[in-house]
Amino acid sequence: MSSQVILHPNRDKSLRRRHPWVFESAVAELKGRGRSGDTVDVFDSEGDWLGRGAYSPTSQIRVRMWTFSKEESIDNAFFLRRMEIALNLRMRLFDPEVTNAFRWIASESDGLPGVTIDLYDNVAVLQLLSAGAEKHRDKIVWAINKLKPGTHVYERSDVDVRKKEGLEPVTGVVSGEPPMQVTVKENGLSIIVDIENGHKTGFYLDQRDSRAAAAHYAKDADVLNCFSYTGTFSCYALQGGAKSVTNVDVSQPALDLAKQHVALNGLDETKSHYVKKDVFKQLREYHERKEQFDMVILDPPKFIDNKASLTRAARGYKDINLYGIHAVRNGGLLLTFSCSGLMPADLFQKIVADAALDAGRTIKIIARLNQATDHPVIGSYPEGYYLKGLVCEVTDL
Fold first, then answer.
1. Using CA atoms in the order 45, 49, 55, 58, what is the torsion angle rounded to 10 degrees?
2. Structure pTM?
3. Which end of the chain is more exposed for a tag (fewer CB within 10 A), N or C?
4. Mean pLDDT of the chain
5. Which CATH number fits domain 3-67: 3.40.50.11030, 2.40.50.140, 3.40.630.30, 2.30.130.10?
6. pLDDT tens column, 56-97
7. End-to-end CA distance of the chain
């Protein structure tokens, strides 16, 4: 018999709405052993069964729910079922001849809290970020190989959130012989993914739809791509007919890969420029020199790790957007993003609008951009929506 978690009175509402988290403050009692990753049954204060999840003795999120069905056991068949459902959805979303890299498992939104799997052609990059995911790693890897035979599996569980779960970082080959770099197709473009050292699992798959939007807006534009990473926004812009693209990033290896991407896709290398510099400093320099562009892309890293840092992060977003707006020619476009899940969409819009006011300019929002379709948001877990983007026309007052 599994251990039992009993909730305090009136702390069952979110679980009845199938939200997948139980916080430490909601737990009245643990009956039985509560080892890291153990499967526990969760009951309300009256003794009604609510669901089954993974116990984490060190995390503020004390239980991450696996299932709300009493008949469902957390066994090999469970992981196979969840992962097959998720894979079938992605198969409907993409033509593998055009796009063969996608997020296969988006953790809670695919019913597998703490599990992220990105598929890059025949290489699966795995992140296990919760005690429950870690406990069942063998079942998850087995299901990958069962559903996608011949897939090489590499692990990138090197994210700080594992510490909150009492877990050490883990990276390396799990099965097969994955190459450390793999070339994939995205909307017909060739992209090199560094699975060993690249950001996240090697690449930002969540910006696929936004990159396609950038191509749509880039015709005849001088484009400034800030936090350019490996320059894929710039490749899309060049493909869309950009006059020039300037990539700004602090990482020389990322800029080297950006240069490779232009050549790999047969794009005009004379139109591409590379600046190794801190984006904040570079934007200030452009402002001092009164240098402007027809389109500015701002895709900064996550500024917010917890609710306490929201105010500080808001200042950072305002600062970067203020100078980003300064860098847009009259009548040009700003594509600006926040990948911070704790940043509400309405607050992000307000920050960008306030930045425009401080810059003495007017923005007109013409489109909203979101995380790509392979990063779904399950209805009971709105926290799964994290990537917000705005396309703004910028004009002088």
1. -10
2. 0.94
3. N
4. 95
5. 2.30.130.10
6. 999 999 999 999 999 999 999 999 999 999 999 999 999 999
7. 69
Decide which of 1.20.970.10, 3.60.110.10, 3.40.50.150, 3.40.50.620 is the CATH code for 204-396.
3.40.50.150
Amino acid identity at 347: L
| CATH no., domain 76-183 | 3.30.750.80
3-state secondary structure the chain: CCEEEEECCCCCHHHHCCCCEEEHHHEEEEECCCCCCCEEEEECCCCCEEEEEEECCCCCEEEEEEECCCCCCCCHHHHHHHHHHHHHHHHHHCCCCCCCEEEEEEHHHHCCCCEEEEEECCEEEEEECCHHHHHCHHHHHHHHHHHCCCCEEEEEECCCHHHHCCCCCEEEEEECCCCCEEEEEECCEEEEEECCCCCCCCCCHHHHHHHHHHHHHCCCCEEEEECCCCCHHHHHHHHCCCCEEEEEECCHHHHHHHHHHHHHCCCCHHHEEEEECCHHHHHHHHHHHCCCEEEEEECCCCCCCCHHHHHHHHHHHHHHHHHHHHCEEEEEEEEEEECCCCCCHHHHHHHHHHHHHHCCEEEEEEEEEECCCCCCCCCCCHHHCCCEEEEEEEEEC
Distance CA 101, CA 191 (A): 10
Q: State how far the Cα of 37 lies from the Cα of 319, in Å rounded to an integer.
A: 41
Token code pair at residue 90? 């992605």
Contact assessment for residue 119 and residue 104, using Cβ atoms and an 8 Å cutoff: yes
Instruction: Give the torsion through C-alpha atoms of 89, 90, 96, 99, to 10 deg.
Output: 140
The per-residue pLDDT for range 1-56, each reduced to its tens digit, is: 689 999 999 999 999 999 999 999 999 999 999 899 999 999 999 999 999 999 99
Domains of the chain by residue range: 3-67, 76-183, 204-396
Residue type, 117: I
Is the predicted pLDDT of residue 236 greater than 90, yes or no? yes
